[in-house]
Please model this.
Amino acid sequence: MYRKDGENYCIVDAHVALWDARPENQRNIHGKQFIDCFYDYHRNLSPESELWPYEDYLYYGGERLMKEGQWAEKSGVTLPYTIGHENAGWVHAVGSAVTHVAEGDKVIVHPLMTCGLCRACRAGDDVHCEQSQFPGIDTAGGYAEYLRTSARSVVRLDDSLEPADVAALADAGLTAYHAAAKAARRLRPGDRCVVVGAGGLGHIGIQVLNALTAAEIIVVDRNPQAVELARSLGADHGIVGDGDHVERVLELTGGHGAEVVVDFVGEGGATRDGVRMLRRAGDYHVVGYGENIDVPTIDVISSEINFIGNLVGSYLDLCELMVLAAEGRVRLHTATYPLDRFRDALADLDAGRVRGRAVLVP
Model:
């Protein structure tokens, strides 16, 4: 690890998230420059790099998790810049003040590097740290052999877990856990929870809801294979979103709608339909994004429905998620591709052919 400007950092070898860096992808304004910059970063960071007391140096084993990037505008990064934000691996080196992990330990890396001193951190709400950095989003990430990160960010893995198997839980899984855990605090036995989307995040959220609540789980997805996967993971009902899915949900809920809707899609009309599946005084958890929520304020007031945003989970959320993973109660479904077939992986993701997460293996 190393220390810079009063912050503590760690370096981890890990499995990381890829963004869609194809030049033809107009949603990625930097295109191929991301890939070019990777090589410079890779050359400048080595196992011999100096570590400060509260840093870890992790070595990355090579699997690359695919994710399409939409954060260029919000991140405000400038080139050169290294992508990769879902990281797990083996500790290569630690700073002199690090005591909870050691060289060779398997770890998963929380998405944020946080200060530990601001009001949010002191309250345990480190997701909203006033000084946070997000490797792979607003600072250099793990798309390289080594990654420096903070000692506050790493969670040691149980012996039963391997970095490649849980890497996507570092963000996709953590975000799903955060939303599902918040929803579970509201849900009581006999309540219904509608999960919109059973893809990369949704299939994790379904498992978390099963682990944390006795509520009846209804899953809606446009893809019949995703619905089948949801049922295999414990969903009580699976509905293909083929046009009459709202009416079918209302039938299952006695015409009232569900106490909670967790929307892992957030685009393509999902919010419009999701609100119709929500009962009076229900909670609508927004996880996926891409469209605006268009609901008359009089309807929000008269029915007392609540819209709840969900970012990534906290460090403690990640610790709890790793417990569920070690117990076998949360399993990450992945599709594996050789590294030289990354374009095939991207095409399959774009076409919705990947159930869960896509992994590139060099």
